[in-house]
Design brief:
The complex is a heterodimer of chains A (271) and B (359). By secondary structure, chain A is of the alpha/beta class. Helix content of chain A is 46%, strand content 12%. A 5-stranded parallel sheet of chain A has the order 2-1-5-8-9, with helices on both faces. Chain B has one domain. Helices cover 37% and strands 12% of the residues of chain B. In chain B, helix 4 crosses helix 5 and helix 4 packs parallel to helix 6. Chain B is globular, with a radius of gyration of 23 Å. Classes of the chains: A alpha/beta (271), B alpha/beta (359).
C-alpha cells in the first residue's frame, strides 16, 4: 500500500473516540524532525492559541551539549498511561534517506524505482531490491524497533509521521548547511534532486511496510507542503539541508487536528 | 629380474601406496598440475554450486580472489552477499554446462543475443533467464533487468580480459535449450521463472564431443581477449538432483554426466598448455573416504571434504602449507562504505544542530 493509500485509510477510519468522549490526548516524540513541530507549538502559545499536541524531542547529550527534553524510556512511561482514544505520534528517525543521497558518492549511481521515475543508465545501477533490503534491514534494526517499542507500550493509536520530503533546490542546500557539512559539500557536491526524492520515497515505502507489520498507521507529509513533483515547497525549508521549518510544523499540527481532533479543527475554522 | 615401465613410477601411480594404504585425509590424487599462483595472481571463479566453495576458500585465503562485479560500496557487505555479489567473480550465478559458459562469453562480447530476454515471475518480479536466482526478489521492471544485465556483461568482459587464472567447475551435461536460437538455460524454464513450452524448449544432454567443442571455443575466445589467461577445470562431485534423460535413472545419469565432463576436462588438459585439471571430483567421490565427504542427503559435500580439496589446491598451486587457510591473509571486504560513514556523521551533526533553526 502506498503512503497516500495508507493516509487515506487513516482518514477513512477516522478517530476512534465516541462523539461525546473527552478530546484525545496526543503525544508526539521524535528526533530532529520534531523540532519544527515544537517550534510551531511555541508560536501558537505565543499567540495564545491552543496546542493540541504535547511534542517531545529525544534527550541526548553530545559534546557536552544537551539536546532534546525527554528520554525514550520516560516517553514510554508516559504513553503507557494513555487509553485507546489517545494518539501517539512518532517522528522518530527520518534522515536515513539523506545519508544515502545528500552528498554525491564518489562512485556515482542511480536506481530504478517502482513508480517509473527517470533513471540515468549512464551511471552504475544498483538493483532496487538490494537498496530496499538495505533500508529494510537498517530500519528494522533501528527506528523500527523504537516504533515497535511505542506500539508495545501503549493501547493508544500509534501513528508514524513520515519525514518531510527532500528539497529540490541544490543551490539552497549548498548555501545553507551546518559546520562540517559545509566543509564536505563544496568538495563533493550535492546529489541530484531526483536521486534524493527517490531515496525519500524508498524510505517511505519501507517504513510503511514496517509499520503495517506492527500495527502502526502512517501519516504522509501534509499535501500542501509538497510540490507537484513531490519535493518540499521552498516556503517550508528550514535553513539547512534536510529539515523543514516551523511553518511545516504548523501544517503538521493542523493535519493532526483534522484527523484526530475534528471538534478542535472545526473550532479553529470558526475562529 | 626384468625391468618394466612400472618399476620407475612414483608412489602416486600405485593404488595401494597412494590410496588404500594411506590415511584418508592424506590421499592426494593430484596428477600433473604445474600451474603456480601467488598472492598477486588474479583468480576468477565460475561454475556449478561446488564452485561456490572454491570461491569461498579463495576469499579467506591469501589468494587474490578476483571479483569484477562487487556491487556498489554504498550497499552494506551483508546485503551485497545476500544479493549474490562476490559469490562468483561476477554475478552470473551457477554456470552448470560448457555450453552455458560459452554462451555467457559470447553474450558478453555481443556475439549472441538470445530471444528469451526477460521472464515475468509475478506482477513486479522479473527474472533473467540466464541467471534466474541471482537477484533475490527479482528485478522490479524489464528496464531494470536489462540495465543490470548490461553492466553485468560489461563486468564479465572486464573479468575475462584481466584475470590471470580462471577456475571453472563443470557441473552438468543436461540442460534445457531454446529450439529457436539454441540458448541454454541454467534452470529449466518454468522452475524459477518463465513458462515451459515443449514447442519452444527442448532437453539437451551434451555428448562429450559437444563439451570438448564448447570448452575449446571458450578457451580460444578467452585467449583472444587475454593471451596470458590460464584455465583450471574441475568437475563438481555433486550428483544431479534429477535427470530428464528419457527412461534414465538419476544415479546412472550422474555417472554419465560426470564421466563426460571428466573426459572433456582431460582432453582439454592434454590439448592445451594453458589448461589444467584439478581433481576435486576424485577427492570427494574416491572410495578411500568411504562416502564420508557427503552429507546425509548423499549430494551435498561436507566441510571436511571441501577443506581436503582446498588444502591440496593450495599446496599444489602455491607450494604453501595448509596454514595459509587459517585466514590470516583473508581478503577483507569493508563492511561500511567510507562515504556512507562520513555522510552519516554529517547528517547526524545537522540533525543535532537543527535546534539552531532560524526563522
Amino acid at each position: 500500500m502506498s503512503v497516500k493509500k495508507a493516509t487515506k485509510a487513516v482518514l477513512r477510519d477516522g478517530p476512534s473516540q465516541e462523539p461525546n468522549a473527552r478530546p484525545s490526548r496526543i503525544l508526539l516524540f521524535g528526533d530532529s524532525h520534531s523540532h519544527a513541530i515544537q517550534r510551531a507549538n511555541e508560536k501558537r502559545k505565543g499567540k495564545g492559541l491552543p496546542t493540541p499536541v504535547s511534542a517531545r524531542r529525544l534527550l541526548k547529550v553530545k559534546n557536552g551539549r544537551k539536546l532534546g527534553d525527554t528520554s525514550f524510556e520516560d516517553f514510554l512511561d508516559a504513553v503507557h498511561k494513555l487509553s485507546a482514544d489517545d494518539v501517539v505520534l512518532s517522528v522518530i528517525g527520518g534522515n536515513q534517506h539523506s545519508v544515502f543521497s545528500m552528498i554525491q558518492h564518489p562512485q556515482p549511481f542511480d536506481f530504478f524505482s517502482p513508480d517509473g521515475a527517470e533513471t540515468d543508465t549512464a551511471l552504475e545501477i544498483i538493483p532496487y531490491r538490494a537498496l530496499e533490503d538495505a533500508f529494510a534491514q537498517g530500519l528494522r534494526r533501528g527506528d523500527g524497533q523504537s516504533i515497535q517499542a511505542l506500539r508495545d507500550a501503549t493501547s493508544a493509536r500509534v501513528v508514524h509521521v513520515i519525514p518531510p520530503p527532500p528539497k529540490a533546490d541544490n543551490a539552497f542546500i549548498e548555501k545553507n548547511h551546518e559546520t562540517r557539512f559545509a566543509e564536505e559539500l563544496p568538495a563533493k557536491g550535492v546529489s541530484s534532486p531526483a536521486l534524493r526524492l527517490k531515496f525519500w520515497q524508498l524510505q517511505a515505502r519501507v517504513l510503511e511496510s514496517i509499520c503495517a507489520d506492527i500495527g502502526v498507521e502512517v501519516m504522509a507529509p501534509p499535501v500542501r507542503t509538497v510540490d507537484e513533483h513531490g519535493f518540499l515547497r521552498p516556503e517550508f525549508y528550514a535553513q539547512d539541508a534536510t529539515h523543514a521549518n516551523w511553518l511545516y510544523g504548523e501544517k503538521v499540527l493542523r493535519e493532526i487536528e483534522r484527523r484526530f481532533l475534528p471538534q478542535h479543527a472545526a473550532h479553529r475554522g470558526k475562529a | 629380474m626384468s625391468e618394466h615401465p612400472y618399476k620407475s613410477l612414483p608412489q602416486k601411480a600405485f593404488w595401494r601406496r597412494s590410496v588404500a594404504g594411506v590415511k584418508p585425509a592424506e590421499v592426494d590424487p593430484v596428477g600433473e598440475f604445474d600451474l603456480r599462483i601467488d598472492s598477486g595472481t588474479k583468480v576468477a571463479t565460475a561454475g556449478s554450486c561446488f564452485a561456490q566453495h572454491i570461491a569461498r576458500y579463495l576469499k579467506k585465503s591469501g589468494f587474490c580472489y578476483y571479483v569484477a562485479e562487487p556491487g556498489h560500496p554504498i550497499l552494506p557487505s551483508a546485503i551485497r552477499e545476500q544479493h549474490n555479489y562476490g559469490l562468483f567473480s561476477a554475478r552470473y550465478g551457477n554456470i552448470y554446462t560448457a555450453r552455458q559458459l560459452l554462451q555467457l562469453f559470447e553474450r558478453a562480447h555481443g556475439r549472441f543475443n538470445p530471444s528469451d530476454d526477460v521472464w515475468r515471475k509475478a506482477g513486479d518480479v522479473f527474472v533473467d533467464p540466464f541467471r534466474p536466482t541471482t537477484q533475490p526478489g527479482g528485478f522490479i521492471s524489464p528496464e531494470e533487468l536489462l540495465a543490470d544485465r548490461e553492466q553485468h556483461l560489461a563486468a564479465v568482459r572486464r573479468m575475462f580480459e584481466t584475470l590471470d587464472v580462471f577456475v571453472f567447475t563443470l557441473g552438468l551435461t543436461e540442460c534445457w535449450r531454446s529450439r529457436e536460437d539454441g540458448a541454454v538455460f541454467p534452470v529449466c524454464p518454468g522452475v524459477e521463472g518463465g513458462t515451459f513450452d515443449p514447442e519452444r524448449h527442448e532437453f539437451y544432454n551434451q555428448p562429450v564431443e559437444d563439451v570438448v567443442a564448447d570448452l575449446t571455443a571458450f578457451r580460444n575466445g578467452l585467449l583472444a581477449v587475454n593471451p596470458k589467461a590460464q584455465i583450471i577445470f574441475t568437475v563438481s562431485p555433486v550428483p544431479l538432483v534429477a535427470t530428464a534423460e528419457p527412461g534414465g535413472h538419476v544415479l546412472s545419469a550422474t555417472t554419465y554426466s560426470k564421466s563426460v565432463l571428466r573426459v572433456a576436462a582431460e582432453e582439454m588438459r592434454r590439448r592445451f598448455d594453458n589448461v589444467h585439471y584439478f581433481p576435486s571430483y576424485e577427492i570427494i567421490t574416491g572410495a578411500f573416504n568411504r562416502g564420508s565427504y557427503y552429507a546425509p542427503d548423499l549430494r551435498n559435500v561436507v566441510e571436511s571434504g571441501v577443506s581436503h580439496v582446498m588444502r591440496l589446491f593450495m599446496q599444489h598451486a602455491t607450494g604453501d602449507t595448509p596454514e595459509v587457510l587459517d585466514g590470516k591473509a583473508a581478503q577483507q571486504t569493508p563492511d561500511e562504505d567510507e562515504h556512507l560513514k562520513a555522510a552519516q556523521e554529517l547528517i547526524e551533526v545537522e540533525c543535532d544542530e537543527v535546534a539552531l533553526d532560524r526563522d
